[in-house]
What we know:
Elements: H1 2-14, H2 17-34, H3 63-76, H4 84-99, E1 100-101, E2 104-105, E3 108-109, E4 115-117, E5 120-121, H5 122-139, H6 142-159, E6 170-171, H7 185-201
Antiparallel strand pairs: 1-2, 3-4, 5-6
Amino acid sequence: MHLLEACLAWAEAGNDTGWADWARHITELATQKFIRRGAGSLGESFTADWRPAPGVAGRIVEPGHQFEWAWLLLRSESRHPGPLRDIALRLIAIGEQSGVHNQVAVNALLDDFSVHDPNARFWPQTERLKAALLAARLTGDAKYWEMAAAAAVTLLPYLDTPVPGLWFDVQLPSGELVDSPAPASTFYHLVGAIAALDRSLAPP
């Protein structure tokens, strides 16, 4: 996922066909192996021959990654001959319809879309916002702007900490935010969401 993001960044910055080829190869791997045919959901764990891992691990579907991969596939659309938009919008639909509970994207579902982990980390909310904003810009469909607005609102409680600049990482199903260390990895997701908002709300 992050390798694809890096390849897209290099391809966009330098118009380098080599990086664009890498991006296409990773996109093909995602659409052919990571995403379940029929269901349209994204798996998390695989065996060496790209089959779902045995047991619960092979059944996990993370709404945050549904949104993050949708954002990447929508960005890849202009460089790929396949029907990436439909695949990406299906990922978003699964994340939004099955993965959002009590207004926030939960940590994990199973492959039947039942909730596996009802807690809600901060980073999936940022990826929901990014995916919705890009889908709104590309399709012009008002429902994605509404989704983006709803996702943006969910970020605020995570940022309402006693120490400015930190964030809460986990929200419980009750809505309570857990007072725990703020993982530094979340900063990447937060900056990406802010950048996406900036691009989407800037004057044409």
